[in-house]
Amino acid sequence: xxxxxxxxxxxxxxxxxxxxxxxxxxxxxxxxxxxxxxxxxxxxxxxxxxxxxxxxxxxxxxxxxxxxxxxxxxxxxxxxxxxxxxxxxxxxxxxxxxxxxxxxxxxxxxxxxxxxxxxxxxxxxxxxxxxxxxxxxxxxxxxxxxxxxxxxxxxxxxxxxxxxxxxxxxxxxxxxxxxxxxxxxxxxxxxxxxxxxxxxxxxxxxxxxxxxxxxxxxxxxxxxxxxxxxxxxxxxxxxxxxxxxxxxxxxxxxxxxxxxxxxxxxxxxxxxxxxxxxxxxxxxxxxxxxxxxxxxxxxxxxxxxxxxxxxxxxxxxxxxxxxxxxxxxxxxxxxxxxxxxxxxxxxxxxxxxxxxxxxxxxxxxxxxxxxxxxxxxxxxxxxxxxxxxxxxxxxxxxxxxxxxxxxxx
Amino acid sequence: xxxxxxxxxxxxxxxxxxxxxxxxxxxxxxxxxxxxxxxxxxxxxxxxxxxxxxxxxxxxxxxxxxxxxxxxxxxxxxxxxxxxxxxxxxxxxxxxxxxxxxxxxxxxxxxxxxxxxxxxxxxxxxxxxxxxxxxxxxxxxxxxxxxx
Lengths: 409, 148
Ligand code: SF4
Known about the structure:
The complex is a heterodimer.
Chain A: E1 5-10, E2 22-28, E3 31-38, H1 46-50, H2 55-63, H3 72-85, H4 91-120, H5 123-144, E4 153-154, E5 157-158, H6 164-189, H7 192-198, H8 206-212, H9 216-221, H10 228-231, H11 237-240, H12 247-251, H13 258-281, H14 294-303, E6 305-314, E7 317-326, E8 333-337, H15 339-343, H16 347-351, H17 359-365, H18 388-408
Antiparallel strand pairs in A: 1-2, 2-3, 4-5, 6-7, 7-8
Helix pairs in contact in A: 2-3, 4-5, 4-13, 4-17, 5-6, 6-13, 7-18
Chain B: E1 12-17, H1 23-32, E2 44-45, E3 54-58, H2 63-75, E4 81-85, H3 87-91, E5 113-115, H4 122-147
Parallel strand pairs in B: 1-2, 1-3, 3-4, 4-5
Helix pairs in contact in B: 1-4
The structure holds iron/sulfur cluster (SF4).
């Protein structure tokens, strides 16, 4: 049979992808022989807008860089701004901030577990995980007033205090999620089909991970001990001694595949629960804002000259911000580096030689956040016939079913 | 909401997002999961605009996305309704002074229902879909009227 090469553009708009990115792949039979990744479809010029607004408005804007990890960018922003301006947040605020950030990590990781389950064809698992996710969204709504985009951080502190009733709700949620992660380990990690479907898929060796400069859970799954909360601690993280979660500490060796990254994410939820518990139990008393008066804060920013680099460990990896203030009430230079930018590098080498049925897993595995990219999956034959993402998804589900039969007999 | 006499079928929705921050999109996905579960009302996300009755758009729509959005709209069969979810599609919102946005969306395609909020709550999005339903009912009536 003659070999036919198929051209598969995956990108701009599609219901199965949350955001826009474009991947172009050439396929021979079931094997991918050439890959190209294009990004930049959701470019909104945020840094440029931020350099025209005042710092408080820019903080609000930084939250809209990404709505899934909507506290990560403000966190990196306030850490950087405080460094540049020489403001220190009161201890109570330094303990409240990690609580919110870790709650967000829990919702983000659960979201990912649902997405990867869906990509493999376990839709009931998607619904079950997302049902569990609603609890943390309810809690965030109670603490901050909104389910997503909480607008709760401020340069020099936080905008809302924790009350006794809040602390009780947080403790309830912690108990709930300890049970939930146990169930997740049981349902996801011990499931032979899940294991067979993800072992060896999207596998990244330690050398490759270092070469491609991947960050966050993707790097940790490959066995690299890196975590901003461990390497450059800030706020309460400095008191907690956070250690990067790597597979070799859990099962003895790191393979860096989709199974390992699932494990890393589930254990990180438990780590977050520990951090939240510590912060709640050791919450210092006192005020929550260094400069409670916003006009005074803006005046201070106008008077201060300085620049700094700051970072926060977001659910997907490190978020780095650079800020420079000189004489304006907002940043005169603002530069943002988001983790998916590094992690998307892993797609091309991982997709090369992979099967079409594995595309959804490779694409979903880094938990891409592409508010700066493209979105849809189309399969095109040389005659111009479009096969569509449904086709690839169907293939992925078929492969899962086949493995299911083999494993379960 | 009264009885539907003309538009008597499940509502299929196509979701397009361009230049959003994702928060609105993630709330739309949350609609499909057990807490809100819109499938019990027959509302379902469609994989192609050609199968959809309603177009759900989020985001400020960057320049190179505008013609793609127009094409999606044109591919949808009549009667159709468009819902804009979120402030940034309604008015530019927080991205109002960006050099790269072509929005607001109603300058690109006709819009029937706006859902303000940054992001709006899932309940608000369900409410918008119900409003779109009423609009479709009216459009369907007109279409049938023309046939007679
Ligand atoms: S309306 Fe707000 S929350 Fe929704 S996509 Fe736009 S910026 Fe994000």
